[in-house]
Amino acid sequence: MAHEDAGHYAAKHPGAKIDKAIAAAIAGKEKEGRITCVAAHAIAKKQACSPKVVGINIDLLEKRIRRCQLGLFGYDLKKKKVVKPAVMVTKPLKTAIRKAMDGDCITCLAAWDLAKKMSLTRLEVSSACEAMKVKISKCQIGAF
Q: Is the Cβ–Cβ distance between 74 and 68 less than 8 Å?
């Protein structure tokens, strides 16, 4: 959703209903109407549901997601991404990113999997993607 749509996240999910258990877990983790990506994933694990289901509930509750684990949004006072293009991207990492791409981008989950497989941090993978001008798409929580 565009910045001007802030505060109207529930509109993305017409007819969806809030899950009371997930809503309670979100309430326990959110601060000032915001919840971190890490907390959202922890709730998904504890509630035995997908991060997407937690993300839908976050939207229905009109909360905002912050501190993307790939560094893409919500870090400083201006809510800008913190990831910067890598100075150098190794050939194996370039090859792995290209292989994991879905069309002209790589999904959030594929970036996470790649980081784990190559023993890199998620920020290292997203920095490599920035340097290669490869967009990361399909947030697991549904933020982008």
A: yes
Residues whose CB falls within 8 Å of the CB of residue 135, separated by 6 or more in sequence, listed in order: 104, 105, 106, 129
Contact call for residues 83 and 49 (beta carbons, < 8 A): no
pLDDT at 77: 61
> Any idea of the CA torsion for 138, 111, 113, 22, to the nearest 10 degrees?
-40
The burial class, CB within 10 Å (0-12 / 13-18 / 19+), for 77 is: exposed
Strand partners, 136: 106
Type of residue found at 6:
A
Q: Domain segments of the chain: what residues?
A: 3-66, 75-144
- pLDDT score of 48 more than 70: yes
Q: What distance in Å separates the CA atoms of residue 59 and residue 142, rounded to the nearest whole number?
A: 9
Question: CA–CA distance from 35 to each of 38, 49, 57, 130 (Å)?
Answer: 8, 17, 12, 25
Residue 36: half-sphere exposure toward Cβ, Cα within 13 Å: 9
Segment 1-10 shows an average pLDDT of 64
Q: Using CA atoms, how far apart are residues 119 and 117, in angstroms rounded to an integer?
A: 6
pTM, rounded to two decimals: 0.89
